[in-house]
Amino acid sequence: MDATTDKEPLVQEQIYNALCYLGEAEPEEILHCCDEYLRQHDKLAYPHRIIILKAMETVVKNNISSLDKSTAKVVIFLASNEMTKSKEVVWEWQQAASSVLVAVGQRFINKVMEEVLTKFQPGILPHYFIMQTFANLAVSN
């Protein structure tokens, strides 16, 4: 996954494709690896995080029926944190994280709602992508 930092778009696309391909064979393993990698590389620039998040979304979408609850929780927690890590709106990065939540919400809607609702603080305007995620969850379900 370190190759996601390569500036060559073709290399980045190959990493995305490889993650998706491996995700077909071992979805749980790939999702856990992506989670661990993003948590360990907290300073990784957001364009590189997007590649991994998009691969996670694809793996989740293609394997939603076989995803177990514990993996779903890990993915939900990661995506929620990625989405709200920056107070500023960083469209592509936060949209990728939101899309992961929406994909997991196809089967684990209660868990996604539970996590996203924790991001609401009384008296504080919610993050743009919290509202966007709620809207997309409503549309997809």
TrEMBL record:
A GO CC annotation given for this chain: cytoplasm
InterPro entries per UniProt: Maestro_heat-like_prot (IPR045206), MROH2B-like_N_HEAT (IPR056282)
Name of a matching Pfam family: HEAT_MROH2B_1st
Residue intervals of the MROH2B-like N-terminal HEAT-repeats domain: 19-141
Protein name: MROH2B-like N-terminal HEAT-repeats domain-containing protein
Provenance organism: Callipepla squamata (Scaled quail)
